[in-house]
Fold this protein.
Amino acid sequence: MTVVYTFDSHNVEREGVTGQVDFNSHNDGVVLVAVGLVNALTPGERRGRPFPVPADLPAAATEGLRNGYPNHREVGEGDAGELAEVAERLRVVFEAVSSGDVDTAAGQVNRLLDESRARPRLDRHDGEPWHLHFHGPGGTMAGDWAASCATGLAIVLGSEFHDRLGVCTAPHCDRVYVDVSRNGTRRFCSTPCQNRVKTAAFRARTKTA
């Protein structure tokens, strides 16, 4: 069976990507949530500056979820803390793929699938048609998103696009991304980081000249 993803044009434009890889259905938003949670909730560096643990964790968690689902409700304090733990574990997957270690990425995803008891289920709510969820009813917000993100990343890793998860290569940035470009050559988390690198290279050439 061929798995195809579809990242809609809104998300592609927001990430500054031209062209797209066709992935599939509900999974596009789920993978973007994984990216959003890692980038919003895990400390490190962002666009040339230190990125500490967010002071307002609920706002950061909400931002991460809205990366894939813009109308997602605001997150409470307890759920935000649990989502931050999920984000740390999701980061391992992106870092492993970025370093070429798909085995470690797959192992981490399998652990998340087991622990979150991920399972497919058709659901219908809020006036929407039937659609696929990757978790059952009655779970916690963090647990449900752990199951969904793990399943979404499993679909990516189990496809020909398994190398499309990455960590920004710009200096002093470790935010992550999913590469939906046609040729799979994305290296940066955002247009600002790409522009930083281009500007630095231009200045270096000018100085040498």
Remarks:
- Residues 1-18 have pLDDT under 50 and may be disordered.
